[in-house]
Amino acid sequence: MNKHLEELIELSKIDQSIDSFEPKVKQAKTKLEQIENQESDVAKEIESLQEEIKDAELKKAKNDLHIQELTAKLDANKKKSAEAKTEKEIKALQLEEEIAREQLDFANEEIERLDKLIDTRKAEIEAKHSELEELKEQSAQIKEDVEKELVEIEKQKQELFEKKQKLVSKMSQKILAFYDKIRRWAKNSAVVPVRKQACMGCYMKINDKTYAEVIKGEEITTCPHCGRILYLEPQKEEANAE
């Protein structure tokens, strides 16, 4: 096989390996982001529950004040009833008292309802705090694991970069420029094998003449359809030699 072609195949594989780390990095960071988002969501839920409690406490205070006002009104009505001289005045005061007592009952029921709501929300907040603590523990462990994983990925990437630099330093700059030009649009499929007489980049069948050139491997051959650099895989070469 042509020396330059061998170098291009090796370079392409190194580039593929380097680029393959990006999804791994993204996946590792996604794990951490997911647990951090869960923490944030639970914290927001706690905040929302606390706001509900504040709102309920405010409504309770208003009802307590209303009860005081109604109680004072009922006391005042008792005095007025004792002083009332006509049946009309007595009925009017009785009606006021009935309305005040209904409002008083409603206010007491509302306070009872709000107390139950507050107790429920406090229990929910306690449960959410426990959940948040568990998430923080998980987050700390995941963060530690992710950092180790990223360090290992960076180490492997560095080794590949050094390997690539060593290879590139001895390659023909003209060949390298040709490869880079194709790689700009073909990405990691700049150099592809031929299988069953088809380019594995565009999956189009190549003609017999081009296929014969690929089999010989004496020159750098490109796909007549897409322009990618073609080569025959080792096992294909062996099968062909047999």
UniProtKB/TrEMBL annotation:
Task: Specify one Pfam family.
Answer: Zn_ribbon_9
Q: Which domain of life is it from?
A: Bacteria
Q: Which residues form a coiled coil?
A: 18-170
Q: Where is the C4-type zinc ribbon domain?
A: 198-230
Q: Which UniProt keywords apply?
A: Coiled coil
Tell whether DNA repair is among the UniProt keywords. Answer: no
Every CT398-like coiled coil hairpin domain range: 13-184
Q: Check the record and name the PANTHER family matching this protein.
A: PHOSPHOLIPASE C-BETA-2-RELATED, SCAVENGER RECEPTOR CLASS A MEMBER 3
- The identity of this protein, by name, is Uncharacterized protein
Give the species this sequence originates from: Hydrogenimonas thermophila
